[in-house]
Amino acid sequence: MSIFFSSDEWLTLVDNLPNLPFATWETFYATVLSTLLAMVIGLPLGVLLVVGEKDGILPLPRWLMAVINTVINLLRSVPFLILMIAAIPLSRLIMGTSIGTLASIVPLVVASFPFVARLVETSLREVDGGVIEAAQSMGATPFQIISRVMVPESLPSLIANVTIALTTILGYSAMAGIIGGGGLGQIAINYGYYKYKYLIMVVATILLVVLVQLFQSLGTRLSVRCDKRLRR
Amino acid sequence: MIEIQNLTKRFTTQSGTVVALEDISLTIRDGDIFGIIGMSGAGKSTLVRCINMLERPDEGLVAVNGLQMQSLSPKDLRAARRDIAMIFQQFNLLMQRTCLKNICFPLELAGRPKAEAEARARQLLELVGLPDKADAYPAQLSGGQKQRIAIARALATDPKVLLCDEATSALDPNTTHSILQLIQQINRELGITVVVITHQMSVVEEICNRVAILDGGHVVEQGDVGQIFSNPRTAAARRLVFPAGAAKSELVPGRRMVRVAFNGTQTTDKPLVASLAIECNALVSIIAADTRMVNGQTLGSMLLALPEDEAAAQRAIDYISNYPGLSFEEVKQA
User: Can you tell me the ipTM of this complex?
Assistant: First the structure.
């Protein structure tokens, strides 16, 4: 190993070893918290995108649908790095600071709720129109159709899509290290990118990979387990 | 009672306006099993959806048990829909719920307590013959079982009307028969008015007492099943009643041909062809026949070739013309 990495790099790694568990934890909770908040905004938006259509169960004014769609597309098309910097004043306003793991949650949520909304939209569109029609024929209100038909019937797909969002947000949260967000991303960037200590960067990256694996396998397992369409 | 008056429904598509239903008037009496039959695209499904306002008619009136369906507020419409249950070709069960929870679903929507809903659901599972499937998921059931669960779910709110939209079209003949038996049982025992949408004549034949024939968005004939079957007046009705086309058959050279139509001859009556042989010594050949039994009556038509002997042929014609419950016409050689 010492052929690839100097003793200096090994020293940095050993020095920072005690920081790695906490950094992993910071990345974990920033990711999970951001995903949860992104869902709080993205889930209702995704629902609106489906039910608010002209032939939907709760048609909304066309201008409103146009506004929602445009805002989502706009936020989705701005590169995360730019969005993150642009969101610094917003972080200050909400969190009182723009530095640290907690502050990085603001740009993470801003960047990911439109993504979550689109994922939710995709999941809800998979629900068979006939089932919705059946619920209507039984006298279900639009809210009952959303809460008792569309969401529960698309739950396996929603879980699978939330897992995609989770892993994407994990990647974003690592990037937030650039503007002073904490966690594994910060360690990788500060040491690896700015100080050429590649060894600790590799270790931090491996930890990120492990987190992604963990999220993905948990999400897939949960999605498959709760899907009653599969005969077992 | 369901009354439809001068109903018209149009759809706007990219290529212009399509008239799906035009000037439809129908009366469905309480306790009827009313068949609405037509080819694909005749507008059957649109028509049945106009009854519970899943489709809004553009013109005309729909009244179910005295309620003017179009003029109801959304809230009143939802309440009215609990009295008008519907089952579908694709069953439309909630795939993520057990059978029991599926049957509870309409009761849950109506805000009934969970324990009461489950007790009712178990009763209904019993009624449709699947008491052991309470905890099974729809994906674990066969098509016929799924439709039974859908029927149980439809009955949960004690509806007065059951709309069946091609409910047996995805099922094999045996399963179709058993589902139709169940629908008939529900109609008799619970007094629920049933509207059956189908493209299969056999379905109407098996359970309906009245029928309307829909063709190109129009009702071309309606009335008692026996009457329509024995004497289909329009081309569309004939196509449905005799899909094989008993109209033009091969004529036998040198023999007089007679087409006999059975207008509801009692099956207990003496058989025509045998009687011709015994009573007037006229040996006729059956060239084509398409007859069926509806409610114990023989309906349909038969093409007979009369004996070559002119006297025997005339005897046969005289005999047929006096035979009760049938009409006949001589088919001329082309």
Answer: 0.86
